[in-house]
Design brief:
Layout: H1 14-28, H2 33-64
């Protein structure tokens, strides 16, 4: 898994993330395969949208800078 630059890292500590993962696994365990895949697709789509917004922002910032700094993610 590729990590994001620190400027975009927010959220949970490693310990809190492990706790959340355990709680989520416990919650989704009773779901059917179809339901679980549907949930995963929704999360994946949210990630794609976040990345598109960040990419669009970086492209706009690059267009405004004259120094040619590559801000793409």
């Amino acid at each position: 898994m590729q990590t994001e630059p620190n400027s975009f890292q927010t959220g949970l500590s490693d310990e809190a993330m492990q706790t959340l993962k355990k709680q989520l696994v416990d919650l989704v365990e009773p779901l059917s395969d179809h339901q679980l895949l549907d949930l995963a697709d929704g999360i994946h789509e949210m990630l794609r949208q976040r990345r598109m917004v960040r990419q669009h922002h970086a492209e706009r910032m690059n267009a405004r800078t004259r120094h040619g700094v590559d801000l793409r993610i």
